[in-house]
Design a protein that fits this description.
Helix content: 40-55%
Oligomer: single chain
Distance between the termini: 71 Å
Structural class: alpha/beta
Strand content: 5-15%
Bound molecules: adenosine-5'-triphosphate
Number of strands: 21
Radius of gyration: 30 Å
CATH topology of one domain: Rossmann fold
Strand order of the largest sheet: 10-11-9-12-13-8-14
CATH architecture of one domain: 3-Layer(aba) Sandwich
Mean pLDDT: 69
Shape: globular
Number of helices: 31
């Protein structure tokens, strides 16, 4: 007879909340006993466990502490009353202590204590063998590594050995405990142990809505289009089914040598930017921490191609490839049978940030990659072009993959995810171009489906469409504001915001030129900002991101083009500043989505709006915020009235910093600028070479004037003498040493944090000048 399963169906509570329960249990004058001496009670079985192999019952016990000392020795401590059933403890449970107390560090004794509710597991046999008792004692705490949830779990299999197979196939006991005790919210998704362990380690106790909806559909083999707001966990919505599929395959140890040679990539994940690809890679690595044999390889530009090719073949080959389309194209162009491998092996093709990947410059590369890998439908050989065939033949000869893979006849699922689906996309791909500015609407469900069905080679006639946030794409706890200012005042207002509301801030501009200009400007104002744009070398890009993301720099600033708008998941970003009005509504959504990510996170997005951007801003408000939903008082974009007295006091600082920065930039350019701008404009698509964005159809003349102004400034900067620059620097240094009185007796701009979200909600003072309308009216006028 198989050994019985032990566990409990009670809900758990995180250890942070559990101190009182643990403390009380410890003061119960408990005494140490063996497991069999405890007063176990049988628990009626839920129906859902009927079909679990080897499982036939649960017992539970209250009023027991488990203590584990440093050497892993386990002791059970029980109050006298708890032995054989404990009425008093049960009453306490009813009074609100009905959840597990988790593991607490017992500071006095140096031991870990699992509270009474944690230890409810026991074998059903009346007496245990010595071996079994020994095994029970081996239950060890993984508190340090796994955040406390897996105290009852061990790495041993039923024979007390560490399983050689990373999939832990025989460890049903742990699996059941994981599912119903530690991560009950994930239970219905039927996940395997390594996945659950990773989720616990990440403290992801509950699936997000897109995860709950998408995982079963993907697991059932469907193609899927998933739309959910920024920061809502889309990566794991496809990452978990990929891991589950991997785990469902036979263990490596059971494969023959010949089969191991054949390892083919089972999933290809396409990302529009290198940074996002790096992040996806890291995210999936964390998810697959308990499937250590799973090889996930990053294939992005900016890093050594040879090194990446080597990684693709290390450890018997890649299981998952996370790639940007351009570098993937380079890889498949290298020969070495990659076309055949992808074509034969891929079970999943994931298109992350789909609307961006299928947009503009990217689509050609994606389309080429898709044509190459073709589609292998069940039972067929898939499509083949002449190039691919030649490649496949060569590869097949070497590894006899073709024959085997045909036998396997893998049916590939296509999974498409984004927070937005953009209407202008269709026009662009049809070769008609799109309007500049906010010409691109966000697509509805039907349009998105029609479009994607045309462009992607889905397996299913009707892929599943899941829209986890049908009302909006923006995170629920995002607060949005607009500051109206003159085009030439943007630097001033930017400085005001950064100084007044010190926080982790991401500034978006529409041009590389602006990133290059604003970085020294802010540095001169003692606010060093890390730059990020697509013309930086990859290492510098990653370094900027790393420094900005560092938890030890809570007020760090990143100044970036839209290369950082998509997908980047940086913890604790508080504030997004749109220095320029974004070109499209979906870019606004994605930029703003770099804050307020995750379940409880909050964040603020502020758009600096110059008079020539007003039309564009009005369009944006109408597109991003459904007028219907605004009538239900949902917070939308609000005119934010900066304290203009303070702004005025900061003016001289910004003037000086600008002059010095202009000289620095001019010096750095050394006459190469024209060529550089031409190349950048050609290469970058959205990253225009314009210092000021002309948004929404207005501003042509204004932009022209600014162009002249800029030219003058540059000429003046080029002509500035060393002595002049030195005197500006000295004056600025003096001003920066002074505190700026905020107009209240105790508040100084250089001191501490002010709650920007609250300031936005309370925004008062001077009314909006040229936007000239309350938020409701803006929407009524444009969208109504
Ligand atoms: N179930 C979960 N519980 C708690 N946090 C989660 C969960 N799933 C994912 N997260 C975290 O939420 C954050 C956002 O996840 P992710 O990057 O996948 O969002 P996204 O929907 O892809 O966002 P975007 O549209 O901006 O790319 C990440 O830090 C991730 O680790």
């Amino acid at each position: 007879m198989p050994p019985p399963i032990v566990g409990s169906k009670k809900r758990i509570r995180q250890s942070a909340d559990s101190k009182p329960a643990v403390k009380r249990a410890k003061t119960n004058n408990g005494h140490k006993v063996t497991l069999d001496e405890l007063g176990w009670k049988e628990v009626p079985m839920p129906d859902r466990l009927d079909d679990v192999e080897g499982f036939y019952g649960l017992d539970e016990i209250d009023g027991v502490d488990v203590e584990i000392d440093g050497s892993g020795k386990v002791e059970y401590k029980v109050s006298t009353l708890a032995k054989g059933g404990n009425k008093k403890e049960e009453e306490e449970v009813v009074d609100g202590e009905d959840e597990w107390g988790g593991i607490e560090s017992d500071e006095d004794s140096g031991k870990e204590v699992i509270s009474k509710k944690a230890q409810k597991a026991k074998k059903k046999e009346p007496a245990k063998s010595g071996k079994q008792q020994k095994k029970d004692k081996k239950l060890k705490s993984e508190d340090n590594e796994l955040g406390g949830s897996f105290a009852l779990l061990s790495d041993e299999d039923e024979d007390g050995k560490i399983p050689s197979c990373p999939h832990y196939p025989s460890n049903q006991k742990e699996l059941i405990i994981c599912r119903i005790v530690f991560l009950p919210a994930w239970d219905s998704l039927n996940l395997s142990l390594p996945t659950l362990r990773a989720l616990s380690k990440l403290s992801f106790n509950t699936p997000t809505p897109i995860q709950s909806s998408a995982i079963p559909e993907i697991g059932a083999g469907h193609d899927l289009i998933g739309k959910a707001s920024t920061g809502s966990g889309k990566t794991l919505a496809f990452g978990i089914p990929i891991l589950e599929y991997y785990l469902s395959r036979p263990c490596k140890s059971s494969k023959t040598k010949e089969e191991e040679e054949e390892k083919l990539p089972m999933a290809l994940i396409l990302s529009p930017t290198r940074e996002l690809a790096h992040q996806l890679h890291a995210h999936l690595k964390a998810l697959t921490a308990y499937a250590p044999d799973m090889s996930i390889v990053l294939v992005t530009g900016g890093l050594s191609l040879q090194k990446q090719l080597r990684k693709l073949t290390e450890r018997g080959g890649a299981d998952v490839i996370v790639a940007t389309p351009g570098r993937l194209w380079e890889v498949v162009s290298e020969g070495q049978g990659w076309i055949a491998k992808l074509r034969s092996g891929l079970k999943f093709l994931v298109v992350d940030e789909a609307d961006r990947l299928l947009q503009e410059g990217h689509f050609k590369e994606v389309e080429e990659v898709m044509n190459l890998i073709g589609r292998r439908d069940a039972g067929s050989e898939g499509e083949s072009g002449s190039e691919g065939d030649a490649d496949e033949d060569e590869y097949s000869k070497r590894n006899s993959v073709k024959r085997k893979s045909q036998e396997r006849a893998i049916e590939r699922q296509t999974l498409v995810f984004s927070a937005t689906f953009h209407k202008g996309l269709q026009q662009k791909l049809a070769g008609r171009g799109g309007k500049k500015g906010l010409g691109g609407d966000l697509m509805g469900q039907r349009e998105s489906m029609e479009y994607l069905l045309k462009k992607l080679k889905f397996k299913d006639k009707a892929p599943k469409f899941i829209d986890a946030n049908p009302v909006g794409q923006l995170a629920e706890r995002l607060r949005e504001g607009i500051i109206e200012c003159g085009a030439m005042e943007k630097d001033l207002y930017l400085y005001y915001l950064l100084l007044r509301y010190p926080s982790k801030t991401l500034i978006f501009t529409n041009s590389i030129t602006s990133v290059k200009r604003l970085s020294p400007l802010l540095a001169n104002l003692s606010l060093p900002a890390h730059p990020l744009h697509s013309k930086m070398i990859q290492k510098a890009r990653l370094r900027s991101l790393e420094r900005f993301s560092s938890p030890t720099s809570p007020h760090s600033i990143l100044i970036a083009t839209d290369v950082a708008a998509r997908g980047l998941d940086i913890q604790n970003v508080d504030l997004i500043i749109h220095y320029h009005l974004p070109h499209t509504a979906d870019t606004y959504v994605h930029r703003s989505g770099r804050t307020a990510r995750g379940a409880d996170a909050r964040g603020v997005s502020i758009l600096l709006c110059s008079p020539d951007e007003v039309i564009g801003v009005r369009r944006l408000v109408a597109k991003v915020h459904d007028p219907e939903s605004l009538s239900t008082a949902r917070y939308a974009m609000r005119s934010f009235d900066a304290d203009r007295r303070l702004v005025t006091r900061l003016k001289r600082r910004v003037e000086l910093a600008k002059k010095v920065a202009d000289c620095q930039v001019e010096k750095a350019k050394k006459g190469h600028e024209d060529e550089w701008l031409r190349v950048a404009a050609e290469d970058l698509g959205v990253e225009y070479d314009s210092d000021g964005f002309t948004g929404g159809g207005g501003g042509g003349a204004a932009a022209g004037k600014r162009g002249k102004g800029r030219k003058k400034r540059r000429e003046a900067a080029a002509a500035a003498t060393k002595a002049e620059v030195a005197s500006w620097k000295a004056e600025l240094a003096g001003l920066l040493k002074e505190k700026v009185n905020a107009g209240f007796s105790t508040k100084y701009l250089t001191a501490g944090n002010v709650n920007l979200a609250q300031a936005l909600v309370n925004s008062e003072g001077m009314s909006a000048s040229f936007l000239g309308l309350e938020e409701r009216r803006v929407v009524d006028e444009v969208g109504g």
